[in-house]
Amino acid sequence: MYADDYVFRGSIIGPISGEEVRDTQEGFSIPLAYPDLARGIFGFTIDPENPYRCLFFERWTATNTGAATLGPLKLKPTGNRVETPLHVSSITWNPDGKIIYNSISPPVDRFEGNTKGAGAVFGLLFGAGVDSGPFSVGLPTLMLQQKVVQKLGIFGKQWSDEADVPAWWKSKAVGADPNDL
After folding, report:
1. Residue 68 in this model has a pLDDT that exceeds 60
2. Is the pLDDT of residue 170 over 80?
3. pLDDT in tens, 14-52
């Protein structure tokens, strides 16, 4: 269902290829750590300027009842119930009906939920006991942290190597770098 040149991009993650998304997700063990994860998807709408793109809202809820992993770290279950803030996601298909691009926004209202404003996977990591402070585009400390972690190869890939990003992707910004387009 995914195109060979699939790209995922979040506000501070990516661009990352489909294979590296799967490898990174396996490193987090989210389904084992949060077996009751519900993404709370609603509000599907087609982008009026791109008929191949569907936007929708998500509000994740889950309970950390299993062990989570974060690269080499093993995190014991906290029992914490997570309710993330609302965020917007989109899926874009190519003309062949394969998913070529998936994006996820930062939280719409960071004061909603119980994760101190952390959304999606970052909210789940917060529920597993990882409180690494604010995640913000352009935050120099986050950008430096991401570059060090990426260089050391720990905690999974945060973006794909430039050679592995499909040619159709134009931005050179990675991770929490400010937008360059």
Report:
1. yes
2. yes
3. 899 998 888 887 777 889 999 999 999 999 999 999 999
Residue written as token pair 């931005």: 171
Q: What is the pLDDT of residues 105-121, one digit of tens each?
A: 988 987 788 887 788 88
For the chain, the farthest-separated pair of C-alpha atoms sits apart, in whole angstroms, at 46
CB 105 within 8 A of CB 65: no
2-164 classified as CATH 3.40.50.720 = no
Find how far residue 118's CA is from the centre of its chain: 11
HEC profile of the chain: CEEEEEEEEECCCCCEEHHHHHHHHHHHCHHHHCCCCECCCEEEEECCCCCCEEEEEECCEEECCCCEEECCEEECCCCCEEECCCEEEEEEECCCCCEEEEEECCCCCCCCCCCCCCCHHHHHHHHCCCCCCCCCCCCHHHHHHHHHHHHHCCCCCCCCCHHHCCCCCCCCCCCCCCCCC
